[in-house]
Amino acid sequence: MKTSTLGPLRVGLLGIGTVGRGTFDVLARNQDEILRRAGRGIEITVVADLDVERARGIVGDKAEVVADARAVVSRPDVDIVIELIGGYGIARTLVLEAIANGKHVVTANKALLAVHGTEIFAAAREKGVMVAFEAAVAGGIPIIKALREGLTANQIQWIAGIINGTTNFILSEMRDKGLDFDVVLKEAQRLGYAEADPTFDIEGVDAAHKVTIMSAIAFGVPVQFDRAHVEGITKLQAADIGYAEQLGYRIKLLGITRRREHGIELRVHPTLVPAKRLIANVEGAMNAVVVQGDAVGTTLYYGKGAGAEPTASAVISDLVDITRLHTADPHNRVPHLAFQPDALASTPILPIAEVVTSFYLRLRVADQTGVLANLTRILADADISIDAVIQREAQDNEKQTDLIILTHETFEGRMNEALAKMQALPTVLAPIVRLRKEELA
Which of 103, 210, 252, 304 is catalytic? Predict the structure, then answer.
C-alpha cells in the first residue's frame, strides 16, 4: 500500500463523553481502513477532559490526558481540534482560539454553528483552515456532504427532516400506545432516550439548530437561527394523533426549509405527513431527511441520528476529509456553506405569517344545526378551501362533539385571521387545535 511519507496528523480531542469515546474507539479499531482512505495517519495524541481520571481510564497510554482544553488548542504539536464539549459558551471560545492558532476544527456542535456559524466560518477563511461539522446534523447520516457536494448540481427546492430522535421516539410511542405526551416523556427518560432536562429536544430547539444549518447550505445564505419559527411537541394530544391516523396521516416533528419566490421558509413544528410517505414511517429514535432538488428529484437519507459510534462515524469522516485536503490551496476546498463566501445571498427568511402550508383543525363544537355551515363560511370568506371534514358522532347525552377540518394550502397569516373569527363563535366551545400539514410530494 502506497501512502504519504508524511507523519500522521495529530488530533486534540476536547471532551471524551459518549461521542468522544466513540470517536476514540472507532478511530483505533478502523485505523488501517482509515489510513488506506486518507493516505495519511490520523492519531488522537491529546485528550482534554475535566474528569482526568475517567479519561485516562478510557485512553490508557494511547494519548496524553489533560484537564485544560485551552492549553490543547494552542499546542504546536496539534494539527486538528475536535470540539465535543457542546453549548454556546466555552466551546465558542475554544473553537475561535483553535482557528486563530491555525488549527483545523471538527465539531458536532449544532447549537454553536447555528448561532455563531457566520463568525466562525469567517475566522476560518481568514486563517485558511477548515471547520468540518458533518456530525452536527443527523448523527451518522452524511447529510451535510450530500447537500454540500453530492447535490451541488441542483437548485434545492425544499428540505424536510426528522432530525431529533427523542421527539420521534415520543411521537412513535404516543401513536402506537395511544398515550399522552407527559406519560411517554417519562418513559423516554427512563429508557435513556430523553435527557433529565429535555427542553431543547421537546421544544424543537435542537431540530431548529440543525435545519438552520441545512438551510444555509441548501440556499447559500448565512446561518440565521434567530429567524427560525420553532414549536415543540409538548402541547400535542393523543386525540390528534388518533384523528390524523384516521385521515391517513402521521404526525412528526419536522424541520422544514423551503425556497419561495420572496424568501425562504425556516420552521420546526409538529406536522401531519401522509402515511404513504417513507418519512412518515420513520419510527423510534431514527432520523430521516428528504431533499427535493430540481434535477435529481426527491432523495431520502435515513439512519441513526445520535449515539456514540454513529456520530463518531461522522466525526471521523470529517477527519479524513481534512487529512486529504490539509495541504490543498484553501481557495480550492469545498466552501463551508457550499457556496463561495462572496456569493452568499441576502434572501430573507420569511416570517411565519407569510409561510404557505395546509392545516389540520380540531374544533370542539356544540352538536347543533348550522355549526359546520358557519365555520365553512368563515373559511370561504378568507379564500381558504377545505380538503376534508370529519365530524365525530356525539355520544349518548352529549351536546358537543369534535369536528376535524383539513384545508388546502394558504398563507398562515390568512389562517390566523380565520381562526380568530371561528374561535369567537359561541358554538365553538374550546380552544381550536391547529396543526400544519405537508404533503411532501
Answer: 210
